[in-house]
Amino acid sequence: MTTHVLGDTTVLTGRSLRHILRSPDTIITTVVTPIALMLLFVYVLGGAIHTGSRQSYVNYLLPGILLITIASGIAYTAYRLFLDLQGGIFERFQSMPIARSSALWAHVLTSLAANLVSVAVVIGVALILGFRTGASVAAWLAIAGILILFTFALTWLAVIAGLSAKTVDGASAFSYPLIFLPFISSAFVPTSSMPGPVAWFAEYQPVTSIVNTVRALFAVQPVGSDIWVALAWLVGILVVAYAVAIALYRRRMS
């Protein structure tokens, strides 16, 4: 049974990936906004921002930009899922000897693959802009793990949006708040520089702990309790989003 599910998921993931390869503008569009923001903050606004850190501003900025890149990318997951539902693809799959969950997991794994490519492109541009790190292989693996977990958590939120949306615009618009959430965090400026209520929200929302953890790993500094707070947020969001998405999927396909 497990082999059957894995085989079906692999085939359907290949189908979704081929759609992206035939339309590379998806990844291009995903990375344009984060790269534009990085250029804007590094070359226009960065000189006026005081982070209290000795590292260059592109080093300070990059963790938040990576999260924005992923948040931008998962909008396409909701969009593609919605189009498949409207096109009757899922109903056709149900009439075939295919594991029911494989169609959903194919979209999730496609999202992971596409977002990892986008993240790699953004890191490449950051290196051109002067980003440097002494992070060890273990630190890079930890960063990759956090970004993958972040991608999975947001992708299952995208699945919920794709399953419950009534229009194409509604399927992808849910990601806009997620894209702007890093702006009210420690991604661009220290939370201590913000007004009281805003600083409180920025300090305790999930993006700040994730950004702080990735930034510390890049800078080869102690991560402290931030990594545990980040993991708690990510695992919690992932578990809840997954449960809700599966419940919606079963109800819709029943």
Spans where pLDDT lies below 50 across 5 or more residues: none
Number of strands: 0
Q: Quick one: biggest sheet?
A: none
Beta content comes to under 5%
Query: Order of helices and strands, N to C?
Result: HHHHHHHHHHH
Helix content range of the residues, please? over 70%
Broad shape: globular
InterPro entries: ABC2_TM, ABC2_TM_bact-type, ABC_2_transport, Nod_factor_ABC_transporter
Main location: membrane
Membrane topology: Multi-pass membrane protein
GO molecular function, one term: ABC-type transporter activity
Please give the structural blueprint.
Blueprint: H1 2-22, H2 25-45, H3 57-86, H4 89-94, H5 100-128, H6 137-164, H7 168-173, H8 175-180, H9 196-204, H10 206-218, H11 226-253
In short:
The chain is an all-alpha fold and 254 residues long. The chain has helices at residues 2-22, 25-45, 57-86, 89-94, 100-128, 137-164, 168-173, 175-180, 196-204, 206-218, 226-253. It contains eleven helices and no strands.
